[in-house]
Write a structure and sequence with these properties.
3 helices, binds 2-acetamido-2-deoxy-beta-D-glucopyranose, alpha+beta, Neuraminidase
């Protein structure tokens, strides 16, 4: 009996213990689960943190990128402001130019109405220049072809066709100093060596210097050889000096580094008569001056960004100067700089344009507005270049 009791007690004890131990196991499992859960949460929390970090990093890179692009924008705007400043500068100079066109009011008494009239005249004159420019709707875009017509005269010289509408006369200036030019009736009589019509020799009152002469409206314009910077206007009819003037800042250095004889280079385009020279006080850059062919007075002067160093010539088309460069050894001539007085054509728009390779170098280049041709003197060969012209983009 006792034993039975003992056995029962033991059994019940065992049961309690086993009950206890099953409870412990449950607890253990429970805690383990909780710990696992917590671990999982910790891991996901870590992952969240990591992705947050990544996002922060991404954001900061993006910010940095944006700051960089803002900086680029800033410098672009700065460049824009600078270019506006240069334009304003130019406008200011134009205004100054208009002022200089007016007589000095401090020393002369002028009635207000007369002053008004003069202001209006000056303004309409300025407008006339601009309007003329707008009518000029073509721009040079390349060299279409080359034609070698003749070999005559000196190694250096100049020949050109009369730009007067319906005139076919050819003028021939051999050498860099002489006072006799030849006038041919036409290109045919110039090139035909068997031609029975002899050219007319025209004796100028003073010899010329260089190769930059121009013929315009029945007059020849050239650099008086015995002066530093005197421009002569001589009638082709009676060979008398019709007018003369001194071109300011000109005559100190040759216009083009590779054409040492020429100090004043005249040009004729759709807008009229021009002269190009190099100014040593302006870094040897080229300066273009619009001349009033009637009164031989300066209409306006532009300091250009084109260098005279290594230049061999230039021509003007519709108020845009194109400068031709080469090397001392006489390589291939190419146009590498332009200057447009209307600011509508930029050097950046123009690819470097090469001339077809021929002899060594050009001592003169004269554009003919109707023919759209350049009459060039290439090492003693009289050559023409036909230009490709495009319609100018209208800037409003
Ligand atoms: C001047 O030009 C004429 C005609 O082209 C020529 O006969 C003469 O030899 C030249 N004079 C000089 C000094 O070059
Ligand atoms: C010029 O004349 C010569 C002989 O009179 C002749 O041989 C030559 O072919 C002619 N040249 C031209 C371009 O007519
Ligand atoms: C010479 O001719 C021009 C026109 O070409 C004329 O204006 C000028 O008065 C003439 N001079 C003389 C002295 O005849």
């Amino acid at each position: 009996m006792f034993l039975k009791l003992l056995v029962m007690l033991f059994m019940s004890l065992c049961a309690v213990r086993s009950q206890r131990s099953t409870q412990d196991v449950f607890m253990m499992e429970y805690f383990q689960r909780r710990i696992l859960e917590m671990e999982e949460r910790l891991i996901s929390c870590n992952q969240d943190l990591q992705s947050m970090n990544q996002r922060m990093y991404d954001m900061s890179t993006e910010m940095r990128g944006q700051v960089r692009s803002v900086n680029v924008l800033k410098s672009e705007i700065q460049g824009f402001v600078d270019s506006i400043a240069t334009r304003v500068d130019r406008v200011e100079r134009d205004v100054e130019y208009l002022h200089t066109k007016l007589p000095d009011t401090s020393s002369v008494e002028i009635s207000d109405s007369l002053l008004d009239q003069q202001v209006n005249e000056a303004q309409s004159k300025r407008k006339a220049v601009v309007i003329q420019g707008k009518e000029c709707s073509t721009r040079f875009s390349g060299i279409k072809s080359q034609k070698i017509l003749k070999k005559a005269g000196d190694v250096v010289g100049s020949w050109l066709k009369d730009p007067t509408v319906d005139s076919s006369k050819i003028y021939f200036f051999s050498g860099s100093r002489n006072n006799t030019l030849l006038q041919f009736g036409s290109l045919k009589s110039f090139t035909d060596s068997n031609s029975t019509t002899k050219p007319k020799a025209i004796q100028l009152p003073r010899p010329w210097k260089g190769t930059g002469h121009a013929v315009y409206d029945g007059f020849v314009y050239y650099h008086n050889a015995d002066t530093r910077n005197e421009v002569l206007k001589v009638s082709l009819v009676n060979r008398t000096v019709a007018d003369r003037m001194l071109l300011p800042t000109a005559g100190h250095i040759p216009t083009y580094g590779l054409a040492p004889h020429t100090f004043l280079d005249f040009a004729v385009d759709e807008m009229g008569l021009w002269v190009i020279h190099a100014d040593p006080d302006f870094g040897g850059n080229l300066v273009i001056t619009k001349l009033d062919s009637k009164s031989l007075s300066v209409e306006h002067t532009w300091d250009t960004t084109c260098k005279s160093h290594n230049a061999e010539g230039a021509f003007i088309v519709c108020g845009t100067m194109y400068v031709v460069y080469n090397s001392h050894s006489g390589g291939r001539s190419s146009i590498q700089c332009l200057f447009d007085i209307h600011d509508s054509v930029w050097t950046e728009e123009l690819p470097v344009i090469y001339f077809p390779k021929r002899y060594s170098s050009h001592s003169s280049m004269h554009y003919h507005p109707q023919d759209k041709q350049i009459y060039a003197w290439d090492d003693g060969y009289q050559t023409t270049y036909q230009l490709d012209v495009k319609k100018k983009l209208q800037v409003t």
